[in-house]
């Protein structure tokens, strides 16, 4: 069975809250930060509702889940205080991850700031050696994430990851988290040459190291070095490329985790598209949303077809304008999904009683193309 889910909240009742949220999206896996991603304040293990959460996971058929380390720790820092804090915090985080019963913790390798990449790689390896040595009593692996290459971050190429792994003694506890947005932004061609890219990864790092895949579309063209996630189908990768990744034989069995942005006209109405993204990628949207869902998607094809709006052209064209035409962006800063939502909401293409979220879910399905209707 495909393991697919999203990032969920670990606040309030910890693992129980996380599981309950994941179930509402139809997830078979999920990812948590054990506290706020931008700080190192953490609740004691006893207040994370681990037993209750595990029972709820069992009941929902959720097996493997993933922890993400906070993104502020930097093992690449030349400043001893920053480096020491990262080592110490990651060790505690690994013990917490072990207590929750999770095998992999995702880590952004680090950034070299005012030094250089060679320094950063050596420093990160030094830190990983300390972290792994100090947590030998656990079975937790550190999953180094493929990065987009913004700023001075390390991990933007497969070679950088391989160099880190080579320098770490206990590297049987190092795995990799592939992020589709980051790889695309770093310049890898996941649309035109997915097989070639994965073969390249296999040669340099080894596909057997891949433990997790982050599934995100990108707001930027390939090689932009940016790291801005878009909902599945609403970015430069597109639905087809993402579907091919999720169903690729070389990645079979891994948890696929969405970290796509929430969509909505106001902060209050913003909703994640995870439920639709998961159902579409898994292929059970009819069971999840009912037959009328497909009638609505068919109506969207008809509606946009009449106006000669092609989903791929529209999405890429809008990002292009937002990126390259400051005046046009100022006049109309709406991102592709909001523009599409407005077109639909102003028309009578869909029944008037659908919520903003429901309309956006149908637009997400429209990104999957007419093939979706044939298969349904
Ligand atoms: Zn990450």
Automatic annotation (TrEMBL):
Family: Belongs to the AP endonuclease 2 family.
SUPFAM superfamilies from the UniProt entry: Xylose isomerase-like
SMART domains membership: AP2Ec
Binding residues for Zn(2+) 2: 145, 179, 214, 259
Catalytic reaction list: Endonucleolytic cleavage to 5'-phosphooligonucleotide end-products
Function as written in the Swiss-Prot or TrEMBL entry: Endonuclease IV plays a role in DNA repair. It cleaves phosphodiester bonds at apurinic or apyrimidinic (AP) sites, generating a 3'-hydroxyl group and a 5'-terminal sugar phosphate.
Name this polypeptide is given: Probable endonuclease 4
Cofactor descriptive note: Binds 3 Zn(2+) ions.
Binding annotation for Zn(2+) 1: 68, 108, 145
UniProt keyword terms in alphabetical order: DNA damage, DNA repair, Endonuclease, Hydrolase, Metal-binding, Nuclease, Zinc
Cofactor: Zn(2+)
Xylose isomerase-like TIM barrel domain boundaries: 21-282
GO terms, biological process: base-excision repair
GO molecular function: deoxyribonuclease IV (phage-T4-induced) activity; DNA binding; DNA-(apurinic or apyrimidinic site) endonuclease activity; phosphoric diester hydrolase activity; zinc ion binding
EC number: 3.1.21.2
Residues noted as binding Zn(2+) 3 in the record, renumbered to the chain: 182, 227, 229
Class of the enzyme per the UniProt entry, highest EC level: hydrolase
One Pfam family this sequence matches: AP_endonuc_2
């Amino acid at each position: 069975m495909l393991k697919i889910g999203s990032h969920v909240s670990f606040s309030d009742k910890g693992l129980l809250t996380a599981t309950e949220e994941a179930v509402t999206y139809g997830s078979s896996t999920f990812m948590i930060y054990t506290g706020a991603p931008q700080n190192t304040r953490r609740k004691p293990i006893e207040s994370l509702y681990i037993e209750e959460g595990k029972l709820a996971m069992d009941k929902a058929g959720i097996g493997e889940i993933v922890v993400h380390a906070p993104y502020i720790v930097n093992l690449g820092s030349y400043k001893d205080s920053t480096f020491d804090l990262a080592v110490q915090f990651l060790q505690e985080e690994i013990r917490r991850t072990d207590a929750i019963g999770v095998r992999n913790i995702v880590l952004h390798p680090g950034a070299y700031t005012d030094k250089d990449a060679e320094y950063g790689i050596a420093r990160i390896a030094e830190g990983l050696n300390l972290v792994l040595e100090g947590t030998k009593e656990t079975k937790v692996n550190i999953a180094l994430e493929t990065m987009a290459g913004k700023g001075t971050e390390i991990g933007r190429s497969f070679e950088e990851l391989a160099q880190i792994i080579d320098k770490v003694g206990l590297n049987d506890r190092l795995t990799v988290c592939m992020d589709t947005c980051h790889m695309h932004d770093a310049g890898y061609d996941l649309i035109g040459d997915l097989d070639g890219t994965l073969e390249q990864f296999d040669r340099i790092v080894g596909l057997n190291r891949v433990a997790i895949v982050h599934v995100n579309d990108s707001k930027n063209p390939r090689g932009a070095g940016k790291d801005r996630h878009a909902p599945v189908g609403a970015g430069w990768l597109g639905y087809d490329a993402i579907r091919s990744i999720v169903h690729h034989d070389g990645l079979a069995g891994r948890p696929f985790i969405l970290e796509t942005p929430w969509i909505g006209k106001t902060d209050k109405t913003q909703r994640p598209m995870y439920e639709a993204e998961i159902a579409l990628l898994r292929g059970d949207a009819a069971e999840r949303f009912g037959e009328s869902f497909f009638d609505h998607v068919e109506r969207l094809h008809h509606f946009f077809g009449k106006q000669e709006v092609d989903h791929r052209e529209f999405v890429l064209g809008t990002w292009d304008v937002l990126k390259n035409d400051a005046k046009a962006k100022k006049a109309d800063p709406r991102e592709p999904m909001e523009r599409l939502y407005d077109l639909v909401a102003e028309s009578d293409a869909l029944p008037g009683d659908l919520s903003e979220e429901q309309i956006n879910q149908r637009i997400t399905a429209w990104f999957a193309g007419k093939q979706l209707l044939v298969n349904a």
